[in-house]
Amino acid sequence: MGPLKLADLIGLDTVASIAESLYDEFKEPLYAPPPLLQRMVEAGLLGRKTGRGFHTYDRD
């Protein structure tokens, strides 16, 4: 499983939240959530839980 599929599985909102927490704690730009990830979360593309993220999933 690659990193984008794993992010979809965890939930992009969760990944963004973790990145924001790390950035708030350490103030390292490396830990800040990428703009693409923030835009996807704002658009409601949260990964498997919504059926779309970096990949598209069937809602079985």
From TrEMBL:
3-hydroxyacyl-CoA dehydrogenase C-terminal domain: residues covered: 1-57
Enzyme Commission identifier(s): 1.1.1.157
Pathway(s) per entry: Lipid metabolism; butanoate metabolism
The keyword Oxidoreductase is assigned to this record: yes
Superkingdom classification of source: Bacteria
Signal sequence interval, chain numbering: none
Gene3D superfamilies listed in its UniProt record: N-(1-d-carboxylethyl)-l-norvaline Dehydrogenase, domain 2 (1.10.1040.10)
One Pfam family named in its UniProt record: 3HCDH
GO biological process terms held by the UniProt record: fatty acid beta-oxidation
Molecular function per GO: 3-hydroxybutyryl-CoA dehydrogenase activity
SUPFAM superfamilies xref list: 6-phosphogluconate dehydrogenase C-terminal domain-like
Enzyme class, UniProt record, top EC level: oxidoreductase
Keyword entries, A-Z: Oxidoreductase
PANTHER family: 3-HYDROXYACYL-COA DEHYDROGENASE FAMILY PROTEIN (PTHR48075), 3-HYDROXYBUTYRYL-COA DEHYDROGENASE (PTHR48075:SF9)
Entry's family note: Belongs to the 3-hydroxyacyl-CoA dehydrogenase family.
This protein's name: 3-hydroxybutyryl-CoA dehydrogenase
UniProt organism field: Streptomyces coelicolor
Gene label: hbdA
